[in-house]
Write a structure and sequence with these properties.
- By secondary structure, this protein is an alpha+beta fold.
- The strands form 10 sheets. Strands 5, 25, 26, 27, 28 and 29 form a 6-stranded mixed sheet that branches. Strands 6, 7, 8, 10, 11 and 12 form a 6-stranded antiparallel sheet that branches. Strands 19, 20, 21, 22, 23 and 24 form a 6-stranded mixed sheet that branches.
- A hairpin with a 5-residue loop joins strand 33 and strand 34.
- Helix 2 runs parallel beside helix 5, helix 4 packs across helix 5 and helix 5 packs antiparallel against helix 6.
Length: 952
């Protein structure tokens, strides 16, 4: 009996199996690397959120992104793959050249490969779509945690929260599904093309000339003969593609509803928001196109049974024509023929909507307006009544002062002062306006040969201390008179810094390694460099192995495994840029571009103003990328430990209320902020600048005034600045009607196209009036000179012009500082510092103070006295301007900018002045029989004398 020989697998099959296995292994490795990198990145974020105490925030975001991504990917897959699979199944199995005659059968392997390819493409597209959808997690969370705004839009009567929270979510969802259907339509047509349900072939040539051939069908006798093509679509393909198009037009119908609601953001009228043409034409046309899209969708559904190829073509043609006519031609004609000839009458109601909405969106409706009555001219007596204001006039510009700080106090090339910020402190019992700059680490300042990995990440880890000076005090040579200076810091009483190290600042690093075996540089001492190990709470443990692996991949280095510097308790500090740190925890907030450092309780802190903003407030005019803004949050960062706290400062903000529902563990109430920090909260420059810009137009109450721009204001120009616009600035002054001085931010206004001043805006920073704003208007009968006029008077003064020319010829550069407008009891005092910068030292020094004054008097009265003087000190300039001496450093107040004289240190002058003032006050109390007051003043005198003794 014959036995069959054993069969062996073919080599081709074995090689194909091996190739498939190798491809699967390679694919699995690549996928593991991609997913592993993503997971390790998430692990680093998990570690960091644990460091700052916001793990709940991390998990909320991760789950939100994951679920939104999964939902988006699932929806995309369920739209795409069933359509591709249906097309594969509906495609004809045979190819026919003539009706009823089968010429060729389709290859079944092609159908199988198309099915596999369709599944793969659907999965990949769903993954990409899900990844894109995960980026919409903020929209989804805001929608799910929306709160009522409490304000209705004037056109549809819907709550503003609908436009801010609901409409963006539904529009995103509709656009996502619409895009998925577009992709499904295209790929479905491709499947039909591949499998024969859709054939594109060359059409037969037209008949030649001859009897019975109509003229329109005759072939041209000459010229290039181009091939003609025709498309044949099977009935099933027509039905399938018609169904997808019907779904698209159904979504387009819903989109017209959204389009109608979005008219409240129209920019086509006389003011932002729905105008006359929008309401009279575009709104009805949106309803017409909604009905048209629904009718086309119904017709395409009917075509699923009729299977007419021309119907989808006609549908698209009708839709395009309708959009051109209904959205373009009709509104343009109505605007030109009906609205423009009577624009104010037609648009008045809608301009009123815009006026009210814009004021509400930028909190301008909270600004209190006050008109100043005519006031008597300034005198020395007036200045003495307002001595705290005069003695806090800022004589140092931030940029100029920063340059001086860098020359005098950076001390080493690996330190840097980025900027100087204005604040206020109680120094020796005196409320003083100050400027403070943080001495941050500057690794780039090290010599090139010292730019090693160990130096960059282990040895040099932190900045050290701050420089602080009063806004108006200088030394005998014109340099800043420091209240805090040097390393280790030497400070005036009330400004002591017990922990001066800055591990977290405006100038961050990739990462910093602390508590290692290598020495950590602390500061340059007199006897040599001082080293110290970090003892704060900041940083993430380097161990265990998984941490090292995650950080190695995060920062692209293997040194985390090869270095021997690590100990069991070594830590890594990441995200030490304070803005990056805040944004990582709360990316949905916008952050002010100028964080500022504060000395409180002997430590250094950063305060960053954070904003909630949206561009979805109905009828509000946009300012940049938003049309609603609130300074709702103050972010506080410990410069040593990196502790991060978000304090709520506007509980009325609905946008923040929704985010507080999303992240209940992120925000703290404002009253929990330490009192020492609360004393340094200030109205943010970014918010005030936006409000002041919008207020220049929207301070009016009448739609007619807004339309005609009859009372348009402008922010004055300042020739000493490159951009030209006078910036808002902080002052310590007494508001009209108030009893004491306070820390304010102010900005003057001039009428648009004119130079005289008409008003000024002030924002209050001191509790309990923090956040309040007041607009001070001058009487319409009063003539007040403006900043540009004052600059002209100063430049035309012969003495000042001659002196500036002389200095410029002596190898020095003359720098004119910002022109400061100082309101005092209804009058304006202008002060401008003048600095000299030597070509050799490059240190700006305050050498002169220019004072300009012209009484603001009613028109038709006596000619006002005008003075322009330039003197070495503010006190001398005031004396020259008003004819009497004014002690700019008396009564315990800060010194008056002694730019050119005075050998005594400012601190000593201050204490002597305070002692004299307390002695005189005690004598007055004794003569009046006020023995309690006498005792208080004697006690204060004794304290001043003890301070003098300590200073000696």
């Amino acid at each position: 009996m014959d036995t069959a020989a054993p069969t062996r697998p073919r080599r081709g099959r074995v090689s194909r199996s091996r190739r498939r296995l190798a491809a699967l292994v390679i694919g699995a490795v690549v996928l593991a690397i991609i997913l592993g990198g993503r997971l390790l990145g998430l692990y680093v974020d998990w570690l960091w959120f644990g460091e700052v105490g916001f793990r709940s925030v991390f998990w909320t975001r991760v789950w939100a992104q994951a679920l939104v991504g999964l939902a988006g990917g699932a929806v995309f897959f369920l739209i795409l793959w069933p359509n591709l699979e249906l097309a594969r199944r509906l495609a004809p199995a045979y190819r026919e050249e003539l009706a009823g005659v089968v010429l060729e059968a389709r290859d079944p392997r092609l159908r199988r490969w198309v099915g596999i390819a369709g599944l793969v493409v659907s999965v990949v597209a769903a993954l990409l779509a899900g990844s894109s959808a995960s980026g919409a997690w903020e929209k989804v969370l805001l929608y799910l945690n929306r709160v009522p705004w409490g304000v209705e839009d004037p056109l549809f009567g819907r709550d503003v929260g609908f436009y801010v929270f609901a409409l963006p979510f539904w529009q995103w969802a509709l656009n996502f599904v619409f895009f998925a259907l577009i992709v499904a339509l295209f790929l479905t047509a491709v499947v039909y093309l591949v499998l024969g349900g859709l054939e594109v072939r060359q059409a037969p040539p037209p008949p030649v000339d001859g009897p019975g051939v109509p003229p329109f069908a005759r072939r041209p006798r000459a010229g290039v003969q181009l091939p003609q093509f025709r498309a044949d679509l099977s009935g099933r393909a027509v039905a399938h593609l018609s169904a997808i198009l019907a779904a698209l037009f159904a979504l387009a119908a819903v989109g017209q509803l959204f389009r109608a609601w979005n008219l409240v953001f129209s920019a086509s009228g006389a003011a932002y928001g729905a105008g006359a043409t929008d309401v009279a034409v575009r709104l009805p046309m949106a309803r017409v196109t909604l009905a048209l899209a629904a009718a086309i969708a119904a017709a395409l559904v009917w075509n699923v049974w009729r299977r007419r190829l021309r119907w989808p073509v006609y549908a698209l043609g009708v839709w395009v024509v309708a959009l051109v006519v209904l959205r373009g031609i009709v509104p343009a004609a109505y605007q030109s023929l009906v609205v423009n000839p009577n624009q104010l009458a037609r648009e008045r109601t809608y301009i009123g909507y815009n006026l009210a909405a814009t004021k509400a969106a930028y909190a301008l409706d909270r600004i209190r307006q006050q008109t100043l009555p005519p006031s008597p001219p300034l005198s020395i007596a007036t200045l003495e009544r307002n001595a705290p204001t005069v003695r806090n006039i800022r004589l140092w510009d931030p940029d100029t002062l920063t340059t001086s700080y860098r020359q005098l106090q950076e001390l080493r090339p690996y330190y840097i002062f980025l900027d100087a910020d204005v604040d206020r402190y109680m120094v020796d019992g005196v409320y003083r306006q100050t400027m403070l700059a943080a001495r941050e680490l500057n690794i780039e300042g090290l010599p090139a040969q010292a730019q090693t990995w160990v130096n960059q990440h282990i040895t040099y880890t932190h900045g050290f201390g701050v420089a602080v000076s009063a806004v108006n005090q200088v030394t005998a040579d014109g340099s800043p008179d420091f209240l805090v200076q040097d390393i280790p810091p030497r400070a005036a009483r009330g400004l002591e810094v017990r922990e001066p190290r800055i591990y977290y600042g405006e100038r961050g690093t990739d990462y910093t390694l602390v508590r290692t075996r290598e020495q950590e540089f602390d500061y340059p001492g007199k006897a040599g460099d001082v080293y110290r190990e970090y003892s704060g709470r900041g940083g993430i443990p380097i161990s265990p192995f998984l941490n090292r692996l995650a950080f190695s991949l995060r920062f692209g280095t293997v040194k985390f495994f090869t270095t021997t510097a690590f100990k069991d308790d070594s830590r890594i500090i990441i995200r030490n840029d304070i803005r990056e740190r805040a944004e990582a925890a709360a990316p949905f907030l916008a952050y002010d571009g100028d964080p500022y450092m504060v000395i409180a309780d002997g430590r250094l802190w950063w305060i960053v103003d954070a904003y909630t903003a949206t561009d979805r407030y109905p009828y509000s005019t946009p300012e940049g990328d938003f049309n609603y803004l609130r300074n709702s949050v103050k972010v506080v960062v410990d410069a040593y430990n990196g502790d991060l706290r978000f304090y709520v400062f506007d509980v009325r903000d609905p946008l923040l209320a929704a985010w507080r529902r999303v992240f209940p563990g992120l925000f703290l109430p404002a009253h929990e902020m330490p009192r020492a920090l609360m004393a340094h909260v200030r109205y943010p420059e970014g918010m005030f600048t936006v409000q002041a810009t919008v207020w220049a137009t929207y301070h009016v109450d009448s739609p007619d005034a807004l339309y005609n721009k009859e009372d348009q204001w402008a922010i004055p120009t300042d020739s000493s600045l490159a951009p030209g616009k006078l910036p808002a600035y902080y002052v310590i002054m007494k508001l009209p009607g108030e009893e004491k001085e306070e820390f304010l931010q102010i900005l003057p206004y001039t009428p648009n196209g004119r130079s005289n001043m008409i008003a000024w805006l002030a924002a209050r920073s001191d509790p309990p009036h923090y956040g309040e704003a007041v607009n001070i208007l001058f009487s319409k009968s009063t003539v007040v000179v403006g900043p540009s006029q004052v600059e002209s008077f100063i430049n035309q003064d012969p003495e000042i012009s001659a002196q500036r020319s002389l200095w410029d010829q002596q190898g020095s550069r003359v720098i004119l500082g910002n022109l400061i407008v100082v309101p005092i009891e209804g009058q304006l005092l202008y002060v401008q510092p003048l600095y000299l910068q030597s070509e050799q030292t490059q240190v700006p020094q305050l050498k002169r103070v220019i004072v300009f004054y012209r009484a603001a008097l009613p028109e038709g009265g006596a000619e006002p006295r005008q003075v322009v003087v330039m003197r070495p000190t503010l006190g001398e300039a005031l004396q020259a301007a008003f004819g009497e001496a004014f002690d700019a450093g008396a009564a315990g107040e800060p010194g008056g900018g002694q730019a050119g004289g005075g050998a005594l240190p400012a601190r000593l002058r201050e204490l002597i002045a305070r002692a004299n003032a307390e002695f005189e006050a005690a004598q007055r109390a004794l003569r009046a029989g006020d023995f309690a007051g006498y005792g208080r003043h004697v006690a204060a005198l004794q304290e001043a004398l003890r301070a003098l003794q300590r200073l000696q």
